[in-house]
Structures are given as structure tokens and as C-alpha cells.
Amino acid sequence: MKGSNLMSQRVAYPIFLTPYEDGxxxxxIPDFGQYTQGEDIADAxxxxxxxxxxxxxxxxxxxxxxxxxxxxxxxxxxx
Length: 79
Description:
There is one protein chain. The protein is of the alpha+beta class. The chain contains two helices and three strands. It has helices at about 5, 40-60, and strands at about 15-20, 25-30, 35-40. It has a three-stranded antiparallel beta sheet with strand order 1-2-3, with helices on one face. A hairpin with a 4-residue loop joins strand 2 and strand 3 (about 35-40). The two termini are about 25 Å apart.
């Protein structure tokens, strides 16, 4: 999808939270190929929302396509 079309809509992207043994969470955002982290669930969700927004803005600035939600396989192997 072209950036301007998707950015004018409110959409929800899937994220995956993985807890650390010593506290905190890793957040995987498959549609953008990104990771982030948070100290607790609320912080992890905040950081995911921020990462998605920043990536959307970047792609829009670059006139690149913004991926549609659920466009990436949630079981895809990541490095």
C-alpha cells in the first residue's frame, strides 16, 4: 500500500511479546521486521506503538510502501 493511503487510516499490526527471565519483554513486529523491548507489558506496548509509528513515518517520507497489517507470516524465521 502506498504510504499516504495507509497512514490516513487507523490500523492494527500484530506484535509478539516474549518475556525475559529476569524481567521485561522483547517485542517482535513482523510486518516491519523490527524488534523493540519494554520493562513491563505496558512499556512494551508503548514501545511497539512508537516503533510502528516511526517506521510508518519513515516509509511515508521515502515514498515507500507501508506493509498492510498481517502481511508477514507470524511463523517466519527471524534472525
